[in-house]
Design brief:
With 622 residues, the chain is an alpha/beta fold. The protein has four domains: 3-194 and 235-289, Rossmann fold (3-Layer(aba) Sandwich); 195-234, no CATH class; 316-469, 3-Layer(aba) Sandwich (Rossmann fold), CATH 3.40.50.970; 492-621, 3-Layer(aba) Sandwich (Rossmann fold), CATH 3.40.50.920. The chain has 24 helices and 17 strands. The longest helix is centred in the N-terminal third of the chain and has 22 residues, at 17-38. The structure holds thiamine diphosphate (TPP), 1-deoxy-D-xylulose-5-phosphate (DXP) and magnesium ion (MG). Thiamine diphosphate is lined by residues 44, 47, 70, 72-73, 114-115, 143-146, 173, 175-177, 280, 295, 339-341, 363, 365, 390, 393. Pathway: Metabolic intermediate biosynthesis; 1-deoxy-D-xylulose 5-phosphate biosynthesis; 1-deoxy-D-xylulose 5-phosphate from D-glyceraldehyde 3-phosphate and pyruvate: step 1/1.
Length: 622
């Protein structure tokens, strides 16, 4: 097997052209086989096999810096840098990450997970190189989806002041997770159909040479032009006008051609964009046909392409999808917004039913929030559905555009809490802390699927900024009969006893039910409150429970710092309420990838760990 000849970075350079072709096939087989078992970002990776090989042939690692945008397409890069074995434990606890990590390899120049950072980071690297008088190449690889993110444009704008070489490889597969949308995508579509870089180059030179008298002189001038790259009428004029040399389009599955163009690009002084055309999912028919389904794939059967594990229960995302469809029907002012996560956030059905009230704004969370603020100011009821970790990008927009003006924008925060295999970049464990610092914001979290549905309806009838956080995966269907109406800033008492009072927020109610049962078995008496609101807090409930219990325990799937528990603590202190308080939350650290049940144990918020901590605390009181 040619693949076995690849043991470390740059081994690929020892292969002959026939072996390179075989290697591309073997890498694809390897990826399909491994990801069918572990799950992972299959379609994006199948699309960049040749592109990655060409980069590794044209550049020298780890001296040269390749910076992957998002990083979900870095699997071939991992294989070519000696990490083939790591695929056994891909995205598993203690195993190899699905994203580039500086601590994993010196060939991973920059850690990622979130989109549209690669040009900024690459530009930083390039300036650092020049200031420190080093001589390496910097290559940022960005997808057409990631290029829709504001940061990418900010970086392109800034890159034009660079005088030395900096290569931006645009991996254009005409897809984000779903179909890529917007003006940029239209622009790239036009470039896609332009003549290829090489044909154009040859064509231009031949035509020039035929011009009488001046032809040869002109060819010579072009040859001498900036950096020796011969370009005249370039389809990527938008980049050229900005001061970024554009080379393309290039066939992103032709290794030889790409290596030639990358070498050409290395000679350019200043920023240069190489536009490569690739096919998402290439080489595996189900992924070619359904690139969105195989973007982030669960384990699947290779023959059929169908998921290996059957989904038993509805996810919170499914409930959201149903409620949004109903609300869209009931209220024609309801509009839905996603930042390129139509499928992931469950808005596909809303899109199909109300296309004129659905907006995919591209990978642009900051814009999504301010756009929603504008819609609200204009009389609509916008619902922005967004993953917790991506919402981190829009802090200022929530504060400046939504909350100062007290606008009725609803933020549906999916993937709030630990998400599992995507790891530290994607864990949604900061939103309680960053949202509760903002005046005028209201933050809720449901205990189960019915309450979630009630909360979405409550949010639509509300007036003002309001967010609902809910976790990835299965919606809890316990406590079905407990369905008291939602009242602003009011909690729900589920069990009223004495001694210990568990006050749980959102997803932690499910854990708290288990904790309470375990404590009861050990002879403790336990109240259980479903907090429902982290902001505003239920002050009346806190005052009462503080007086009636010896120990209050807050539970949340968020970092402790600035979280629900710390706010409860502040209130108890402010009111000099004399009761012992234990905050169950995630400590001040990033949580790596792995199965969420393992992660709960790791961070100490699983039922067994919580029971141990409560008993230790309570015993200490006696
Ligand atoms: C800030 C942020 N928002 C959303 C995402 C989710 N996301 C991951 S990959 C992706 C699409 C990227 O498209 P593209 O860059 O074209 O890469 P492709 O998968 O097509 O190779 C999105 C929306 C993210 N990682 N970061
Ligand atoms: C790379 C990325 O950001 C997304 O593809 C993400 O992995 C999707 O996560 P879910 O599987 O939770 O939708
Ligand atoms: Mg793409």
């Amino acid at each position: 097997m040619v693949l076995e000849k690849i043991e470390q970075a740059n081994d690929i350079k020892k292969l002959n052209p026939q072996e390179l072709e075989i290697l591309a096939g073997e890498i694809r087989e390897f990826l399909i086989e491994k990801i069918s078992k572990t799950g992972g970002h299959l379609a994006s990776n199948l699309g960049v096999v040749e592109l990655t090989m060409a980069l590794h042939l044209a550049f020298q690692l780890p001296e040269d810096k390749i910076i992957w945008d998002v990083g979900h397409q870095s699997y071939t890069h991992k294989i070519l840098t000696g990490r083939r074995e790591g695929f056994e434990g891909l995205r598993k606890y203690g195993g190899m990450s699905g994203f580039p990590k500086r601590r994993e390899s010196d060939c991973d120049a920059f850690g990622t997970g979130h989109s549209s950072t690669s040009i900024s980071a690459g530009l930083g690297y390039a300036h650092a190189r020049d200031i420190r008088k080093k001589n390496y190449k910097v290559v940022s690889v960005i997808g057409d989806g990631a290029l829709t993110g504001g940061m990418a444009f900010e970086a392109l704008n800034n890159a034009t002041r660079l005088e030395k070489n900096f290569i931006i490889v645009l991996n254009d597969n005409n897809m984000s997770i779903s179909e890529n949308v917007g003006g940029l995508s239209n622009h790239l579509n036009r470039l896609r159909t332009a003549e290829s870089y090489h044909d154009l180059k040859e064509g231009v030179m031949n035509s020039l040479a035929k011009i009488p008298v001046y032809g040869d002189w002109m060819v010579e001038q072009v040859r001498r032009a900036k950096s020796g790259i011969k370009q005249l009428v370039i389809p990527g004029m938008i980049y050229e006008n900005m001061g970024i040399t554009y080379l393309g389009p290039v066939d992103g599955h032709n290794i030889e051609e790409m290596v030639r163009v990358f070498k050409d690009a290395s000679k350019v002084d200043g920023p240069v964009m190489v536009h490569c055309l690739t096919q998402k999912g290439r080489g595996y028919l189900p992924a070619e046909r359904h690139p969105a389904r195989f973007h982030g794939a669960e384990p699947f059967d290779i023959e059929t392409g169908l998921p290996s594990n059957k989904k038993e229960k509805a996810a919170y995302t499914d409930i959201f999808s149903t409620v949004m469809r109903k609300l869209g029907d009931r209220n024609e002012n309801v509009v839905a917004i996603t930042a390129a996560m139509e499928t992931g956030t469950g808005l596909k059905r809303f899109h199909n039913m109300f296309p004129e009230r659905f907006f995919d704004v591209g990978i642009a969370e900051e814009h999504a929030i301010t756009f929603a603020a504008g819609l609200a100011a204009g009389g609509m009821i916008p619902v922005v559905a967004v993953y917790s970790s991506f919402l981190q990008r829009a802090y200022d927009q929530i504060l400046h555009d939504v909350c100062i003006q007290n606008l009725h924008v609803i933020i549906a925060i999916d993937r709030a809490g630990l998400v599992g295999s995507d790891g530290e970049t994607h864990q949604g464990i900061f939103d309680i802390s960053f949202l509760c610092t903002i005046p005028n914001m209201t933050l809720m979290a449901p205990k189960n699927k019915w309450e979630f549905s009630d909360m979405v309806k409550f949010a639509v009838d509300f007036d003002g900024p309001i967010a609902i956080r809910y976790p990835r995966g299965e919606a809890y269907d316990g406590l079905a009969k407990m369905r008291a109406p939602i009242v602003l800033g009011k909690s729900e008492t589920l069990y009223d006893e004495e001694e210990i009072c568990l006050i749980a927020f959102g997803s932690m109610v499910k854990t708290a039910v288990k904790v309470r049962e375990m404590l009861k078995e050990r002879g403790y008496h336990c109240s259980l409150i479903n907090a429902r609101f982290a902001k505003p807090l239920d002050y009346e409930m806190l005052t009462r429970t503080a007086k009636e219990h010896r120990l209050l325990v807050t539970l949340e799937e968020n970092v402790k710092s600035g979280g629900f528990g710390e706010q409860v603590m502040d209130y108890l202190e402010e009111c000099s309420l004399d009761v012992r308080l234990l905050n169950i939350a995630i400590s001040d650290e990033y949580v790596e990838h792995g199965n969420v049940n393992i992660l709960y144990q790791e961070v100490g918020i699983d039922a067994e760990s919580v029971v141990k901590r409560i008993i230790a605390e309570y015993v200490g009181l006696k």
